[in-house]
Amino acid sequence: MQITLLLALLATSSGFVVPHAPRTAPTPRAPAPTALVPELPLQLLAEIVDASGERVYGAVDAPVWIAPLAGVAAIGTALLPVLLAPGEQAFNRQQGDEKKVKNEFGKRN
Q: Rounded distance, CA 19 to CA 17, Å?
């Protein structure tokens, strides 16, 4: 038992030994790829700078129509339950009418 444990410990310790021969860098078979299209200055278009040339963090350069459209969309979604309320009331009335006439459609005896 002790010999087996000692052999198991010695077998795993070989992973911590430094290799004798230094590893050489692999030689490439082909040259590194190069870009065919030159860099586009899109990042410069996205940056907003002040008069001194410093970036203005938090500045938004959005079209003028975005804010009013977002406001109308927010108000429209807030009014959605108010606009759908008559439909719910009609549904509740229809359920009440069906209970009065004892509608048995779709129910098995």
A: 6
